[in-house]
Design a protein that fits this description.
The structure is a homodimer of 212-residue chains.
Chain A lengths: L8 E4 L9 H11 L3 E4 L6 H18 L3 E4 L2 H6 L4 E4 L6 H8 L4 E6 L2 H9 L4 E4 L16 H10 L4 E4 L8 H6 L3 E4 L1 H4 L4 H15 L4
Parallel strand pairs in A: 1-2, 1-8, 2-3, 3-4, 4-5, 5-6, 6-7, 7-8
Chain lengths: 212, 212
């Protein structure tokens, strides 16, 4: 059976912010209210990536939080993660689905309405849309307008999270637009008190939620 | 059923020598006598790696040559390659075997007798041993002595290829030591006439083979 997941507050790790005690930081973030965790590593040895993943999975398992692996379908299989998140430069969703089978989650990054509709057709379980605001984690990403985000929300039925430069001060914009949650990197991992940062974001999301 | 394979002349690609028409170069190399092809890409987008792999697989399929993917078990699954080659910093052999099942080839890099024996126990189908000589493709690799290579050959029953700086002038050394074949990068892909380079290596291997 496919794992249940809650996009409300999605923590995405960043190699530049993962130094030191990543499992400890992930635990603090979960205690603050993170509902989903995605491990993103680039240019790391596969074995090191797998070791990190297994350490983080101990934490996410303990709290019943699904762990998603960015890009690397093999790492997801090797650690029996809940699923993968695929960018537009990663393995296509249809091929990842064949490899992973029906019981793993697949998230896809969509920057346009066309990509969003295609991903839903290809069997994605959720979309990550952005970058919504200029982002420290991906400074090269072109910001997506709130208008495009709203068009995507109107065009697909699968859940949508917004990503890219989202923080406590601007998250009301995607939440009011109707996303199922927000995904953040530095707004949690770049803060001195990771747990407090996550808690504040959760409160702001709930305050901004039009249905809340 | 596991694909049959012949280690005699094993072409390993290198991102730095893969510019331009890689499928064309692989075809020329096969026509010159290459018996096995390993695709090695690092720091490449997964989708681009997969696209390259599918292009090369068209060639290797046409000639009945098994295609091995370096490191990336997911790319091997995505293109239904013959197998993977795993370095000591890649996913462990036992985990890769669980993901790939019994019908895919797994090669493992062994730099010591201990690693070689472990890889055989872990279910590797062949070993790549080296770097035997200083190598342009991996200048940081510590050369392995011919004595260590001989000890590995005595310690394991699975086939062994030598790798690292091997060319037409020095390949007699590992061949006389008893390897099942040699693996090369620049001795084929770095040469102006790829096909002629492969043909010359094949001739030298046959001339040096003590059982030939």
């Amino acid at each position: 059976m496919k794992p249940q997941f809650d996009l409300t507050l999605y923590l995405v790790t960043d190699p530049r912010l993962s130094e030191g005690d990543l499992p400890g930081k992930v635990e603090q973030a979960i205690r603050g209210g993170v509902t989903l965790v995605q491990l993103r590593e680039k240019n790391t040895d596969s074995r090191k990536f797998l070791e990190t993943t297994l350490q983080v999975r101990e934490i996410t398992d303990r709290y019943g939080i699904p762990l998603i692996i960015n890009d690397r379908v093999d790492i997801a299989l090797a650690c029996d993660a809940a699923g993968v998140h695929l960018g537009q430069s990663d393995i296509p969703c249809t091929i990842a689905r064949k490899i992973l089978g029906p019981n793993k989650l697949i998230g896809v990054t969509a920057k346009t309405v066309e990509q969003a509709v295609q991903a839903e057709q290809d069997g994605a379980d959720y979309l990550g849309c952005g970058a919504l605001f200029p982002s420290g984690a991906k400074p090269e990403a072109q910001p997506m307008t709130l208008s495009t985000l709203s068009q995507i929300l109107a065009a697909v039925d699968i859940p949508v999270t917004a990503i890219g430069g989202i923080n406590a001060d601007n998250l009301h914009l995607p939440v009011e637009a109707g996303v199922n949650g927000v995904a953040v990197v530095s707004a949690i991992l770049g803060q001195p008190d990771v747990s407090a940062a996550a808690r504040k974001l959760r409160e702001k999301i709930e305050a901004a939620n039009p249905s809340g």
